[in-house]
Amino acid sequence: MGLFRKKLKQEHKIMLQHDRAAGVLQSELHRPTPECPNPEHWSMIDSMTAEIEVLEFIATLVTTIKPRLVVETGSFLGVSTEWIARGLERNGFGKVISCEFDPVVYARAKERLEASPLKPWIELRNQSSLEMKIEGTIDLFFSDSDPSIREQEVKRFLPQINPNGIILIHDASSHHKVIREAARSMEAEGLLSVVFLPTPRGLAVAQPRAGRS
Ligand SMILES: C[S@@+](CC[C@H](N)C(=O)[O-])C[C@H]1O[C@@H](n2cnc3c(N)ncnc32)[C@H](O)[C@@H]1O
Questions:
Q1: 156 burial class (0-12, 13-18, 19+ CB within 10 angstroms)?
Q2: What integer pLDDT is reported at residue 110 of this predicted model?
Q3: Separation of 150 CA from ligand 1 center, angstroms?
Q4: Phi, psi at 142, each rounded to 5°
Q5: What is the mean pLDDT of residues 62-80?
Q6: Ligand 1 centre and the CA of 213: distance in Å?
Q7: pLDDT at residue number 3
Q8: Nearest ligand 1 atom to alpha carbon 74
Q9: Nearest Cα residue to atom 17 of ligand 1
Q10: How far is the CA of 124 from the centre of ligand 1 (A)?
Q11: Which is the closest atom of ligand 1 to the Cα of 99?
């Protein structure tokens, strides 16, 4: 029977782990990096959803810079989307558009968010970040989709990102070389100014270079 069982996609496997955890926090499981040698000091719900401390940081960033439009790529179960919405609710204005391209994951996120009191602040789309069309200026962009396309999606939305806005690129630790290198190379190209926060999975906080003038 085991031999014939279809291999579960990573996202779907972690979705089941998320259900089993039932919201109980555990210590961060990502391996130590030179910049973050004690990841166990951080907490997580599951290894797809951003670290709790990073979610808290994003919500505080929302109340700090008061974005009118937040765009998130990679909703997974919508937990980070809800934290962004929590900040928007406190501000009393704005919306978050989040995209998830896996239809199974999207359906679960949709179900969760439909039942959430934060629903009025959220627009969830079953689309790829590389196809999604956004109207207007993006004040906060949270890039958290597939590691291989982060550079492509940041470049795709950059012309629409407020020069005084903020770009967050998750998983930019020295362990996830592709994403850290993508952030570095966009800085070297003169597109962004970047700071790397030493969190377990790494968070690049960036601004369009135009905003530095
Ligand atoms: C790390 S998880 C996102 C976690 C979520 N932001 C959170 O912290 O709660 C990445 C998600 O991106 C989705 N994804 C991958 N490539 C994508 C793309 N091109 N467009 C939209 N979603 C994508 C995956 O299916 C997965 O659910």
A1: middle
A2: 98
A3: 11
A4: -110, 110
A5: 98
A6: 33
A7: 46
A8: 12
A9: 145
A10: 12
A11: 21
Decide if 109 is inside a domain: yes
The reply to whether ligand 1 has any atom less than 6 angstroms from the CB of 145 is: yes
Give the pLDDT confidence of 148-189 residue by residue, as tens digits.
999 999 999 999 999 999 999 999 999 989 999 999 999 999
Does the structure show a pLDDT above 60 at 5? no
Q: Indicate whether 40 belongs to any domain.
A: no
Is 71 a pocket residue for ligand 1 (Cβ < 6 Å)? no
For residue 189, give both structure tokens: 């190209």
172 Cα: distance to centroid of ligand 1 (angstroms): 15
Print the domain residue range for 130: 49-208
Helices (H), 24-149: 52-65, 79-91, 103-114
**What gap in Å lies between CA 119 and CA 172, rounded to an integer?**
29
Please check whether residue 95 lies inside any domain of the structure.
Answer: yes
Q: Give the model confidence (pLDDT) of 76-135 as tens digits.
A: 999 999 999 999 999 999 999 999 999 999 999 999 999 999 999 999 999 999 999 999
Please tell me the predicted confidence (pLDDT) of residue 2: 44
Identify the three-state secondary structure at position 112: helix
Number of structural domains (the chain) is: 1
If you measure from the C-alpha of residue 35 to the centroid of ligand 1, how many angstroms do you get, rounded to a whole number? 25
